[in-house]
Amino acid sequence: MRLGEMTWTEAREAIASRVTAVIPLGSIEEHGPHSPMGDYAIVDEIAARAAELTGDVMAPTIPYGYSEYFRNYPGTITLRESTLDAVLTDTVDCLLRHGFPRIAIMNGHAGNAGIVELVARRFSRTRGLVIPSIAPLGLMQAPQVVARVYGPNAELGHGGEPVGSLWMHLRPHRVRLERAGAWGRRKVFGCPTDGLGAITVEGMRVAVPLDMEDVAPPETGSLSDPGLGTPERGRAMLEYAVDSCARFLRWFRGIDPYLGTGGSLPEQAGRPRA
Amino acid sequence: MRLGEMTWTEAREAIASRVTAVIPLGSIEEHGPHSPMGDYAIVDEIAARAAELTGDVMAPTIPYGYSEYFRNYPGTITLRESTLDAVLTDTVDCLLRHGFPRIAIMNGHAGNAGIVELVARRFSRTRGLVIPSIAPLGLMQAPQVVARVYGPNAELGHGGEPVGSLWMHLRPHRVRLERAGAWGRRKVFGCPTDGLGAITVEGMRVAVPLDMEDVAPPETGSLSDPGLGTPERGRAMLEYAVDSCARFLRWFRGIDPYLGTGGSLPEQAGRPRA
Amino acid sequence: MRLGEMTWTEAREAIASRVTAVIPLGSIEEHGPHSPMGDYAIVDEIAARAAELTGDVMAPTIPYGYSEYFRNYPGTITLRESTLDAVLTDTVDCLLRHGFPRIAIMNGHAGNAGIVELVARRFSRTRGLVIPSIAPLGLMQAPQVVARVYGPNAELGHGGEPVGSLWMHLRPHRVRLERAGAWGRRKVFGCPTDGLGAITVEGMRVAVPLDMEDVAPPETGSLSDPGLGTPERGRAMLEYAVDSCARFLRWFRGIDPYLGTGGSLPEQAGRPRA
Amino acid sequence: MRLGEMTWTEAREAIASRVTAVIPLGSIEEHGPHSPMGDYAIVDEIAARAAELTGDVMAPTIPYGYSEYFRNYPGTITLRESTLDAVLTDTVDCLLRHGFPRIAIMNGHAGNAGIVELVARRFSRTRGLVIPSIAPLGLMQAPQVVARVYGPNAELGHGGEPVGSLWMHLRPHRVRLERAGAWGRRKVFGCPTDGLGAITVEGMRVAVPLDMEDVAPPETGSLSDPGLGTPERGRAMLEYAVDSCARFLRWFRGIDPYLGTGGSLPEQAGRPRA
Amino acid sequence: MRLGEMTWTEAREAIASRVTAVIPLGSIEEHGPHSPMGDYAIVDEIAARAAELTGDVMAPTIPYGYSEYFRNYPGTITLRESTLDAVLTDTVDCLLRHGFPRIAIMNGHAGNAGIVELVARRFSRTRGLVIPSIAPLGLMQAPQVVARVYGPNAELGHGGEPVGSLWMHLRPHRVRLERAGAWGRRKVFGCPTDGLGAITVEGMRVAVPLDMEDVAPPETGSLSDPGLGTPERGRAMLEYAVDSCARFLRWFRGIDPYLGTGGSLPEQAGRPRA
Amino acid sequence: MRLGEMTWTEAREAIASRVTAVIPLGSIEEHGPHSPMGDYAIVDEIAARAAELTGDVMAPTIPYGYSEYFRNYPGTITLRESTLDAVLTDTVDCLLRHGFPRIAIMNGHAGNAGIVELVARRFSRTRGLVIPSIAPLGLMQAPQVVARVYGPNAELGHGGEPVGSLWMHLRPHRVRLERAGAWGRRKVFGCPTDGLGAITVEGMRVAVPLDMEDVAPPETGSLSDPGLGTPERGRAMLEYAVDSCARFLRWFRGIDPYLGTGGSLPEQAGRPRA
Q1: What is the Cα–Cα distance from B212 to C272, expressed in whole angstroms?
Q2: Are residues E51 and E21 in contact, defined by beta-carbon separation less than 8 angstroms?
Q3: Contact in structure between E25 and E43 (CB atoms under 8 Å)
Q4: One-character DSSP codes across A52-92
Q5: How far is A47 from A40, CA to CA, in rounded Å?
Q6: What pLDDT digit, counting tens, does each position of A26-72 carry?
Q7: How would you class A173 by CB atoms within 10 Å of its CB: exposed for 0-12, middle for 13-18, buried for 19 or more?
Q8: Cβ separation of A90 and B64 shorter than 8 Å?
Q9: Which residues does chain A have within 8 Å of residue E212's beta carbon, measured at their own beta carbons?
Q10: With contacts defined as CB-CB under 8 Å, which chain D residues touch B267?
């Protein structure tokens, strides 16, 4: 259930019933010339459906993420890393104050992962609490899922699939496939690029900070073929993600998040547990 | 139009057509035992409708605000002041980078106003840009509006009206009026309270930091009578707010936000303009 | 008594006798072309007299405040908000370390109020201590006081009264009434201004960061008529403020600042007190 | 002249006449059981008299300093180093904005010197401006001055002279010589102490953070004999300091603070000037 | 050449000859019960040899890194992320001030990579400068290298190889193979672990902050078999790394680090390069 | 012993045997045109030898220090004060976590002393732990040592002796005496300079931030005669320093660093110990 649609006394009851608080993280950034930018709406949908299935509580989706390398594309809004850290920290602090026994993050944007780890590690150190996070858009890009939904040899990537298909399913009238253009991966300094943070020089990985317009055709920002998108594929991907997240939430209910990892090792102990 | 539902090329076109970027600010906090906490949905609705009327672009609503004095009520999520400052600053920075010629804030939660002013003043100093903000829920509580919608002598206040009515209009099935309980304003140290930041001692205003449970019946958090709520009143209030915001946006189109206030006084000038 | 004129063993005795520590906050900023800028001297005088009457201890007056909107007027010194926060926090920390059982603030400059609230709220959260603050220059501008001292229909305001009269009483030779010039309130964007943070657009309040030279005649910085000033009025205002502050300090002696507000609600409790 | 007693138009005129802005720094801390704590009043007096002699402008004295090692003595108020840095930085920023052509610091408390250097170095780097500082209470403790005023072999030190004499001259009724007690310098770890930051171990200087109660008799905090104090000595010391500061201010008028040191070396130059 | 063994005039000459400044980053952390902790010495050796081959200048190796997840093992010293960021930023700032035309990082510890990226991205934004980084210990673990040096099917990993072999080559008398004990990878919550930041739950990757004692036998901290170590393998690995780094430095000399990536896109441009 | 050459189980044993952890601090900065810049290597050598003599553990030498006033000389790398503070704080935190019973600092660069004091004072306040620091290069410049090694009337100073001699002893082939040039001390504003932070104006000390090129011949950066350098003098100085540091470490073993200074005075006590 959405926390924002609950009254405070309903929230009190939910806490008493020991449900998990789910924090969805989104972003708003270029997804090719044909897809809407607000991918926060996708993770919002996935998290809401999963929480509905498991009876957990979902906090409002944070619509801005860390999208620094997309920032030159009009409409992309990126938080600084320290800002996203602070938003997430404050949110967790409040949920813990109210007594939620466990907290999970559903991260809809890969760029947020580093900050999520930082924040989770800090809560592990300071409270001995494990806050797990799951990335539904990452899960749906596992090879076997892609093969099942798109057939063999399909290549997905930013600015194309699977986000295009997801939008076709969720907001069909907002996708403008006729605007899609060139896609692919460019070289930098004459070397192949590897994600948004490295190039390959004579077979060696060399880390270099890249922007999206460096690695994709700058006039589109598309790494993969938007032509692969269909509403059916979007629906299949979405259902897979909802199902995965629900499975995760059910698993998490069986875990004691205050037990079982080094995070709960008392500060005063100077050596690893034998 | 919602920025999150636009592609980046559509955003580029909107910027070229010189529209205003609207940033709505919400919050999630107790609103009595009967009303949903997520008032961000109200300002989101108001801002979206107003921007639709005027053709401006609306950034995703920030769903968390500064709600410190409500923080003991389960479900309330409050950002630290520095966090909200950072989120708003980052958002404005991105919109300016992309070339939006003017930016306006629609603030759905009174507690955010101090931070909004800080941020606006900073952009005024550093860029000579005026970023105005308007508070639709404040506007609808002007005496003449209240008198028209509620009749004479009605008293509105947090944890009651007008938020209850607005929810009855927007999410009728989520309001649980049967849960409403005691309402009113309590004394602290035996003295009348004045908002959430002062008491009156022998006729003198004494500033004291208060929490909602100090000034309202703690078991409800309601300062005004929830029984005044009706969907019709909610609708009337909402329409008034939408209309006001649209009028504001139209007025703002006629203003040069880089001209006409002291904010644009060059730093090196040491004296006021004669 | 002034803490700065006590020896440390006298301070130890005063603490043992359970007096209040009073922290006066001032500022130095334009007050029209005719009045001295250092209004810290006014609150210093008021606080010292009040503390003398009640036997409380007064810390040295902090002579700089948050006067950002006056900053273009030569001689105005403004601290950043974070700076004033730090100064006040450090001062309170020291007084608490030494064992003062209660602390009160006398704030001589309206612009400081937001920071005072922030700091007070933080001490309320972290120590369960209520630090009240009172604004003597605000109290003396209550309508009934103004009517008694100035007669009916007098309008006071920055850059004119009552500060001019107070200086005529305290430092007659430092007031240069012959320099007073135009006074009044200007429009911005063709709209009436409302304080230093808003304009009224078609009846709606729109928050906008303003500077003093935007809202008053820039060549004077005077919002109200300096011609209303007389030493007698200054004396009456000062005596009213001293008497009010003494009453406040006596009242405060009867309060347990660690009891009675939500500030002392233990962090681990997740719900409001029933 | 005191800036706080000037109107803003007088300040504008003073700036136009190219005078120096003097910032006095004080502190409030234990000075033995017999002397008042507020030594800010001493530097305030010295700076005001010197500025009167030379026609320069004196900003309000900052009454709190960095007095960390005295902090256990009731009544001592110490700013964190970052706080004093911020106060001084903000003050200089404002004075420069208004056009003061040169700024000097009169530092009445040795503990502030490190922060003064940090701030001065920063302005040297960022604006190429030299902000000199002078320590009147240090100057008056030069051997030849001490010999002239106290006779041969006199030893001065914190919690005794010369501050006791200065107070006897400035506020005779506030000195309580009958409270003076033991004085001298203690050992720590069985080793002689060297100031408040070191001990001597087998002839070697070992830096160790000490508090005043470590190095002086804790029940007094006096390092030197309070019995040496007389009002005449206080007067002689004060006059020497005023005269020295005036000489310094006159010398400073002849210097171009933007020329002549490495501070003005442009950032882009990578090598020392040949 | 090592910068620390050059005089400042030699540094000036090296800059004039347009060499690259190399910054090596190390760490000190557990590497199993048998290997020394100071792996900074390994990257120091590699970087020095490579720079000697190419004629570039090597700054002193920073011996501490971000080793947070090893922190419970005695002797591990970890910098906070913000600390390492600051050290690296200051180092780059100084080298740029002196005129080095290009800067490269040799990162000897995988945990530092995230901070290196942050810092590099910041310099890309603020100066348009590309600072590449290369990880010699990563390069030597490429499958084909491992197969060549260790034979087929060898598995390397923290707390075992290749660091053990490298130490056997560099400091044979400091390796205590008799102390090596159990090695391998443990489960957390009954699930397989994936690096130090994730577990696999029902086939799904779930991010969780882990410590080394969670994923390896806590009494050793070894993930791979120390018994694979030989001095010959260490020598082969070291030579491979030196050769790779030298190739990288030669390649870098041919690149204009101020040209060719989005980092140099001027801030004022609001759209990607077409 | 060097911590970096120990395995983690050896570190655990060393901690159990209650040795001291020594943290050496170095710097890299101009030392005249003839001497290498990396003086971190000197303190590294001294600390390693001393720790070897006493059986204590030496952490890796931090090779960068606070050398701000040398920063215009190519090759000088200076950390900001806050950066060095953070590095030292993190290092101490880790050593304390692991259980080292006592920590000492060997500071090889005078410019670091202020930051060392700050950090030491903070640990004294927060943990009641005394962290002493010793400056081997300072100790060797005591008058009696200089007289013994250099003969009467020798004057040492930055950019000349004793660093030149130390390098001749440690890295003879890296000293290029033929590059030495003019040496001496310059005037600023026509006044004698006093260290790097003051000038003497008409007999008065005036604090002014200076750079090395202000006080020494800028084309050399040498304050004292490099011609005094010989390898024998370097050896004598080094041995003196090693012996002094060893004596200090032995003395420190007999001290309880948690007892005996005001640092351990509990926060809640408001008065000095009688």
Answers
A1: 9
A2: no
A3: yes
A4: HHHT-EEPPPB--B--GGGTTSTT-BB--HHHHHHHHHHHH
A5: 10
A6: 999 999 999 999 999 999 999 999 999 999 999 999 999 999 999 99
A7: exposed
A8: yes
A9: 262, 272
A10: 97
D20-25 vs D57-58, strand pairing mode: parallel
pLDDT, one tens digit for every residue, chain D (274 residues) = 999 999 999 999 999 999 999 999 999 999 999 999 999 999 999 999 999 999 999 999 999 999 999 999 999 999 999 999 999 999 999 999 999 999 999 999 999 999 999 999 999 999 999 999 999 999 999 999 999 999 999 999 999 999 999 999 999 999 999 999 999 999 999 999 999 999 999 999 999 999 999 999 999 999 999 999 999 999 999 999 999 999 999 999 999 998 654 433 333 323 343 3
Structure tokens that stand for D52 in this block: 């009167």
- Taking CA–CA distances from C92, the nearest residue in chain D reads D77
Task: State the DSSP code for E5.
Answer: G
> What are the beta bridge partners of residue A57?
A21
Residues 229-258 of F with CB under 8 A from E: none
What the block records as the tokens of B108 is 């759905």
CA distances from F182 to B68, F163, F217, F228 (A): 65, 17, 6, 14
Structure token digits, residue C7 = 């020896």
Residue E184 CA: distances (Å) to CA of E111, E168, E187, E209, E227: 20, 21, 10, 19, 13
Q: Do C12 and F267 touch (CB under 8 A)?
A: no
Query: Please, what is the angle between helix C40-54 and helix C231-253, to 10°?
Result: 50
CB B51 within 8 A of CB B1: yes
DSSP chain B: -BGGGS-HHHHHHHHHTTPEEEEEE--B--BTTTB-S-THHHHHHHHHHHHHHHT-EEPPPB--B--GGGTTSTT-BB--HHHHHHHHHHHHHHHHHHT-SEEEEEE--GGGHHHHHHHHHHHHHHH-----EE-HHHHTTSHHHHHHHH-TT----TTSTTHHHHHHHH-GGG--GGG-------EETTEEEETTTEEEETTEEEE----HHHHS-TTT--SS-GGG--HHHHHHHHHHHHHHHHHHHHHHHTS-TTSSSGGGS-TT--S---
Contact A160, A168 (CB under 8 A): no
Task: Give the closest residue to D167 by CA, choosing from D229, D86, D93.
Answer: D229
Q: Read off the tokens for E144.
A: 């084909």
Q: Which residues of A touch B15 (CB under 8 A)?
A: 74
Q: Is F203 exposed, middle or buried (0-12, 13-18, 19+ CB in 10 A)?
A: exposed
**E147-161 confidence digits (pLDDT tens):** 999 999 999 999 999
Distance (Å, rounded) from C-alpha B106 to C-alpha F238? 69
| Rounded Cα–Cα distance for residues B210 and B189 (Å) | 11
Strand order in the sheet with D191-194: D187-188, D191-194, D198-201, D204-207, F133-134, F102-107, F20-25, F57-58
ipTM: 0.94
Supply C36's token pair: 């001295």
Q: CB burial class (10 A; 0-12, 13-18, 19+) of residue C39?
A: buried
Closest residue in C to B199 (Cα) is C132
Q: Which residue has the tokens 């309330």?
A: B76
The contacts of residue E22 (CB under 8 Å, 6+ apart) are E47, E50, E51, E56, E57, E58, E59, E103, E104, E105, E106, E249
Nearest Cα to E84, choosing from E66, E105, E103?
A: E66
Q: In D, residues 5-64, which contact F (CB 8 Å cutoff)? A: none
Q: What is the DSSP letter of A197?
A: T
- C27 close to C116: Cβ distance less than 8 angstroms: no
Q: Are the CB atoms for A31 and B7 separated by under 8 Å?
A: yes
Q: Which residues of B touch E270 (CB under 8 A)?
A: 15, 97-99
